[in-house]
Amino acid sequence: MRTVDLIRRKRDGEELSADEISFLIQNYTQGQIPDYQMAAFLMAVFFSDMGDQEVTAMTRAMVASGSTIDLSSISGVKVDKHSTGGVGDKTSLIAAPLAAAAGVMVPMISGRALGHTGGTLDKLEAIPGFRTNLTVDEFREQLRMYNLAFMGQSAEVAPADGKLYAMRDVTGTIESIPLIASSIMSKKVAEGIDALVLDVKVGSGAFMKKQVDARKLAQLMVAIGRRHDKRVQALITDMNQPLGFAIGNALEVMEVSQTLQNAGPTDLTRLSLELAARMIFLGRVTMTLDDAREMAQRKLLDGSGYRKFKEVIKAQGGDANVLDRFDLLPNATGVREILSPRNGYVSAIEAEYVGLASAMIGAGRETKDDTVDPAVGVILEVKVGQKVDAGAVLCRLYYTKEDRLEEAAETVEEAFRVSAAPPEDRDLILEVVG
Ligand code: URA
Q1: CATH superfamily assigned to domain 331-419
Q2: Which of 95, 138, 295, 395 has the most crowded CB, counting CB atoms within 10 A?
Q3: pLDDT at residue 114 is higher than 80
Q4: 0.85 cut: is pTM over it?
């Protein structure tokens, strides 16, 4: 088998066999296929797409590139939640403790910020002392003790995804349905879960800009999960404006704390509760989804989700006091206000621009080797639909360095549209698949 022949066939829209896909993934992971050939293959997939059988084979090959975590010694249904990536999306840090407090086993393997989107691991690492580099044994032990453990993808779990994702990031091939589906599902299958709740984002701040594509991605991931005997449900949710008010790692931890104490933004609370309810339902803690919704609500109101998050922060070496004392979190040194140019209604807050601006001042990564500044980010002062006066503060940029502040301020300014008429209401949860 020659790599160049497989690239050529994919380029011409042919379907590759499972053996051929496995050849590509295995040899690339082991360093026997050079980056330039893999880059060409990824671009061929981007333009020619893949059939269901090919995506399933790709997922299998990526799982086989590492080891599968064996969680069978832990009783209870293991349920994870994963988002396709958004701006201000901190729902994992709210839904996971709520579900864990309800008795679901939640092993969570999360990702890092890349491009304009944020990453759960970076948010957790904004908490002083928090360790995300658990070994598989530590991960399993913590799950057994606390029902919830967070870790990052390691060399053991789907290493092919680590290499492929980095290559996609620099070759313009992130926004591909088969590549996103195999990337996410390989990590989830390798993690040894029984069920999965997916949050497929759609809109300006998401990789999928159109609902029809988000639906296709959701259907594909649900189908891959089923082929691996996992129960999967996907919500398709709006990512045209950032979720909540906070964008940036420590700022988002503060908003998580407020939300787990039932004092968070309405959109963030609503989506986190629905994701937690679906985790509780798939975790077979309740018989019906309505009962699961009630339970998620109860775990929020009685503070047990909040306490669970504190317990897990402590168990992973972090300072749990940060949830009550925000001054213990990394703090920015400067603030820049962005003002409304006119009276009117906020008709759009383009999530992508807010995410890009936040990344420019250090909250995210432009390449995978960049380090993030945990203190910085953006706090929105308004949401879409709100009436504003000329000169009112639309958002604040919190920064520690001034190098790209002007560029970031201009970018975030462009995110806001203030119109004479109020915008139409838009649903947050658009569809359920699975
Ligand atoms: N998240 C992932 O893990 N992979 C992708 O390809 C996109 C989002």
Answers
A1: Pyrimidine nucleoside phosphorylase-like, C-terminal domain (3.90.1170.30)
A2: 95
A3: no
A4: yes
